[in-house]
């Protein structure tokens, strides 16, 4: 018998826009993807104010040229939910060759279909062909008028990408699928199809684990991405959770993959719990060490701690929770509560940042160029430029950035957990030394990296952990920043 999952209890982090922004600005793909996912959930579960959309759009601009395909994929969904027509040129560019990942292209089509009258014109214009997967994905945010026929065709084919979209459209409530079809989709040999179908079952709250073609006992035979969503599906539903209590406890104790544990943790944390499950939840919160799992259980974890855990994991080290160093971004990043600074005339802007604030602008996008130039007192044009545009502005600071950054690197090297930050400071120092000690203010990419490093260190309370010397050093570097970046 199918079970009905209760309404989910939102994670506290979804109400913290500052935390979402910090995650979205991360250079670590897993952290950035999680931030964009949280932003999407924030946009889906609320009616955000214009200022909130503006902040999310501004943070998203840093990830539009991400190399990680999952980060780009979630970026397309965020664009669709933002309903931001200014991203149309970016989507067209991605379909024209900026993103060749098949699944990602379907998401770009999904976003575009919600913005233009006929997305097919764009598909043909970039030299692509209309596919069944495009027919399906266009119904996610665009018209569902023709999706019904596409669903019938997809069910009768053996096209994994189309089957993935069946699970996505079902989960979003855009189509209906009988339990028998859901069962067959979860029995197919393609893990991505099984994963997306379970995602849809979990999101719709109509069916429970009974419509999945395998049970918890045989879950170990499934890949991590399938186990992740199955665990979350079972954990979020009290009837399923009670029926498979022994297996859930075993998962908590013996599952090794942190991605699977994160899914299980979110399912348990976000759902109603009786006295027994509240005890299990609290016990797990007190013993979990992986910061992604701890955050999923409702603990406060900073983006810097998440990024450090990913570096440790890549190096084969076990993540640990440093209880003596609270890293609460809600308190340590008050600057994120203000609206992002708009672009200014004559300012050099990295390509990844040119999508936000393009209202009232006419522009040409050239994918071979890394920077754009904004000109005119009324900011009425945006033209592709070469790799660097000199606006004629100068940086009047007499301080030596190379020396200050080298000093910062020395201070950071004294802390083993800040080795990557030390390497970044050293690289910036070398770049500054090659440019006369203190690069001109027009070298915006350099100064943006400098600002990012100082903000990351302050966000993680690194200065307090190390010494007053580091605090003074950071203050000195911040004063060197061009005025528009302070």
List the helices and strands and how they pair.
Elements: H1 17-24, H2 29-45, H3 50-60, H4 69-82, H5 88-98, H6 102-113, H7 119-125, H8 132-137, H9 147-155, H10 160-171, H11 179-186, H12 191-204, H13 224-236, H14 238-243, H15 245-254, H16 258-269, H17 275-287, H18 291-296, H19 303-314, H20 329-332, E1 348-350, E2 371-375, E3 381-384, H21 401-413, H22 419-433, H23 444-459, H24 462-466, H25 468-480
Antiparallel strand pairs: 1-2, 2-3
Tally of helical segments: 25
State mean pLDDT (0 to 100 scale).
78
Number of strands: 3
Please give the order of strands in the largest beta sheet.
1-2-3
Distance between the termini: 60 Å
- Estimated share of beta-strand residues: under 5%
Radius of gyration: 24 Å
Helix content: 40-55%
Biggest β-sheet, characterized? 3 strands, antiparallel
Shape: globular
Class from helix and strand fractions: mainly alpha
Order of helices and strands: HHHHHHHHHHHHHHHHHHHHEEEHHHHH
What low-confidence regions span 5 or more consecutive residues with pLDDT below 50? Answer: 1-15, 319-398, 461-466
């Amino acid at each position: 018998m199918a079970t009905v999952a209760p309404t989910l209890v939102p994670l506290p982090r979804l109400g913290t826009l500052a935390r979402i922004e910090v995650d979205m600005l991360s250079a670590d793909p897993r952290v950035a993807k999680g931030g964009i996912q949280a932003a999407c959930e924030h946009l889906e579960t609320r009616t955000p104010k214009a200022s909130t959309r503006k902040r999310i759009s501004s943070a998203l601009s840093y990830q539009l040229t991400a190399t990680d395909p999952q980060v780009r994929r979630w970026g397309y969904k965020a664009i669709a939910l933002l309903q931001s027509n200014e991203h149309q040129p970016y989507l067209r560019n991605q379909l024209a060759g900026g993103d060749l990942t098949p699944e990602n292209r379907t998401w770009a089509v999904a976003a575009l279909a919600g913005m233009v009258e006929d997305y097919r014109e764009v598909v043909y214009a970039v030299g692509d062909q209309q596919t069944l997967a495009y027919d399906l994905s266009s119904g996610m945010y665009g018209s569902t008028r023709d999706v019904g026929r596409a669903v019938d065709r997809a069910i009768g084919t053996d096209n994994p990408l189309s089957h993935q979209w069946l699970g996505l459209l079902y989960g979003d409530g855009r189509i209906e699928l009988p339990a028998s079809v859901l069962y067959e989709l979860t029995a197919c040999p393609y893990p991505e199809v099984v994963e997306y179908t379970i995602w849809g079952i979990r999101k719709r709250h109509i069916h429970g684990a009974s419509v999945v073609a395998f049970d918890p006992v045989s879950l170990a035979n499934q890949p991590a991405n399938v186990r992740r969503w199955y665990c979350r599906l079972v954990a979020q539903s009290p009837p399923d959770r009670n029926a498979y209590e022994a297996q859930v406890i075993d998962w908590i104790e013996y599952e090794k993959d942190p991605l699977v544990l994160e899914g299980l943790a979110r399912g348990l944390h976000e759902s109603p719990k009786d006295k027994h499950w509240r005890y299990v939840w609290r016990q797990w919160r007190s013993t979990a060490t992986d910061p992604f799992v701890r955050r999923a259980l409702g603990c406060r974890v900073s983006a810097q701690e998440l990024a450090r855990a990913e570096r440790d994991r890549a190096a084969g080290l076990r993540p640990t929770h440093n209880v003596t160093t609270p890293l609460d971004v809600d308190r340590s990043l008050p600057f994120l509560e203000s609206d992002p600074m708009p672009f200014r005339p004559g300012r050099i802007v990295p390509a990844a940042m040119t999508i936000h604030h393009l209202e009232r602008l006419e522009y040409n996008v050239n994918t071979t160029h890394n920077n754009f130039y904004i000109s005119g007192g009324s900011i009425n044009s945006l033209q592709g430029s070469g790799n660097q545009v000199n606006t004629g502005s100068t940086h009047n600071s007499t301080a030596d950035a190379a020396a200050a950054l080298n000093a910062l690197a020395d201070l950071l090297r004294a802390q083993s957990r800040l080795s990557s930050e030390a390497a970044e400071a050293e690289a910036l120092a070398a770049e500054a030394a090659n440019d006369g000690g203190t690069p001109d203010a027009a070298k915006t990419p350099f100064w943006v990296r400098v600002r990012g490093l100082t903000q990351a260190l302050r966000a993680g309370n690194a200065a307090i952990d190390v010494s007053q010397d580091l605090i003074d050093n950071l203050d000195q570097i911040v004063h060197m920043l061009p005025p528009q970046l302070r």
